[in-house]
Amino acid sequence: DGSLENLKSIGETISRQGRNLLILINQILDVSKLKSNVSRSEYQHGDIIGYIHLIFDGAKVLADRKNIKYQFQAPEKTVEMDFIPDYITKIVGNLISNAIKFTPPYGVVTISTETRNNSFILTVQDNGCGISAQDLPYIFDAFYQCNSSSRTAGSGIGLSLVKQLVEAMNGTVSVESQENSGTRFAVE
C-alpha cells in the first residue's frame, strides 16, 4: 500500500543522507591528516590510464541516470608511472562526481589523458552550469560554497581535498570555467 512505499522511500532517503555524511566526514579527516602530515600513503608503480579507467567505469551508473554522454579519451593505452592510488581515486572521483552533478541531463562529460614534456595530464570537462567569475578564484578553498541557489551545492571540501592531494604528489590543478558553458579541470 501507499504508506509502506512512503516509509520505504523515507528510509532510503535517510540511508542516502547517512552515506553522504560519512563521505563528507572522511573528506574532512583526509584534509586534516594532510595538514598535519599524518598521511603516509605509498607510491606505487603502475599503469595510471588503466587505474583512472576503473574509476571512470565506477561512475558510469551516475552518468547513465542523467543520460549524460560519458566518455573516456586516452590516445595512449597505457602510461607506466609512480602514483599514490588512494590519492588518484579521491582526485578523479571528486572531479568526475562534480562534473556529473553539475551537468544537466543529456549533457556531456569527457575525461581525457595525455603525456606532454614528461608530464601526465588528466582533464575532466563538462558542458554543465559552469562557475561564475567571482567564485572561480575561491573554489579550492576549504568550505567555500559558490553563491548559487542551486540545490546541488556541495560542502566545499571536495575541491580543497583535490588540490591538497595533487600538490602532495608535486602536481598542479587548474580550472577554466564559464557560466552556462561548462568547466574544465586539468591535473598535471
Question: If you average the pLDDT, what whole number results?
Answer: 83
Q: What kind of sheet is the major sheet?
A: 5 strands, mixed
> Which sequence of strands runs across the widest sheet?
2-4-5-7-6
Number of helices, where a helix is a run of at least 4 consecutive DSSP H or I residues: 5
Output the radius of gyration. Answer: 17 Å
Distance between the termini: 54 Å
Helical percentage: 40-55%
In terms of topology, how is this protein built?
Layout: H1 2-35, E1 44-47, H2 48-58, H3 60-65, E2 69-73, E3 80-83, H4 85-101, E4 108-116, E5 119-126, H5 158-168, E6 173-178, E7 182-187
Parallel strand pairs: 2-4
Antiparallel strand pairs: 1-3, 4-5, 5-7, 6-7
Helix pairs in contact: 1-5, 2-4, 4-5
What's the short version?
The protein has 188 residues and is of the alpha+beta class. It is built from 5 helices and 7 strands.
